Amino acid sequence: MENVQTTDRRRHYRVAVSLLGRYMLPSQNEYPCQVLNISPGGLALSTPTSAEIGDRVVVYVDHIGRIEGSVSRVFDGGFAILTHVSARKRERLAEQLTWLANRGILSAIEDRRHDRAEPSLSGSTLTLPDGREIECTMLDISVSGASVACPEIPPIGTQVILGRTRGRVVRHHAEGIAIEFDGQVDLARRTGHFAPRRLIA
Fold first, then answer.
1. Is residue 9 very low, low, confident or very high in pLDDT (cuts 50, 70, 90)?
2. Same domain, 103 and 29
3. For position 192, what pLDDT does the model report?
4. Does 12 share its domain with 79?
5. Which sign does the torsion angle of CA 176, 178, 183, 188 carry?
6. How crowded is residue 2: how many other Cβ atoms within 10 Å of its Cβ?
7. Among the three residues 45, 80, 110, which one is the final residue of a domain in this structure?
8. Domain residue limits at 64
9. For 170-196, how does the pLDDT look when each residue is reduced to its tens digit (9 = 90+)?
10. Which of 79, 110, 141 is the endpoint of a domain?
């Protein structure tokens, strides 16, 4: 007899996405997360804390809303859940995913509407919520965000300051993190806002 996860995988095609959200464990603690893939029958999350197989989890996903389910698989850096929803709600979720996909919303974090360029001065500092400053290297930058190589990887959702520009961590990658600025910046006029603090008078 096939297990539920295998059946779900065959019935629902999972779409690779980059959506942010929050999840709540049975302990009632909430944490930020990134949705890696999703289907009407389940989703996989990149998370700062793990969970146990069978745990009931509530996830709030940007653009989608509340999804409840149980942990079906645990992997390095996150876990997958199977949704606990009615057949009708599952159909509505499928329609919602199709609508979002057609508008390019499911890959919002990877959106390249703003051209990214290699910064002329790549060295900068990253200030963490506890006030610590770590040296980092900007790999590319746009008016809305930057990709940064750094030795310490803050959890997704962490508020940080790159140079003197505030933002939040929206994605992890092989060399470090991607940061989304709190607002668009004028790169031509605010280059100094990304320079290491020790170089700013």
1. very low
2. yes
3. 52
4. yes
5. positive
6. 9
7. 110
8. 4-110
9. 778 778 888 888 877 766 555 556 655
10. 110
pLDDT classification of 143: cutoffs 50, 70, 90: confident
Identify whether residues 11 and 71 lie together within a single domain: yes
Per-residue pLDDT reduced to its tens digit, 88-111:
888 888 887 887 776 665 655 444
The values of phi and psi at residue 52, to 5°, are -100, 145
Reference 160, options 139, 142, 181; nearest CA is 181
Count of domains in the chain? Answer: 2
CATH assignment of the domain containing 48: 2.40.10.220
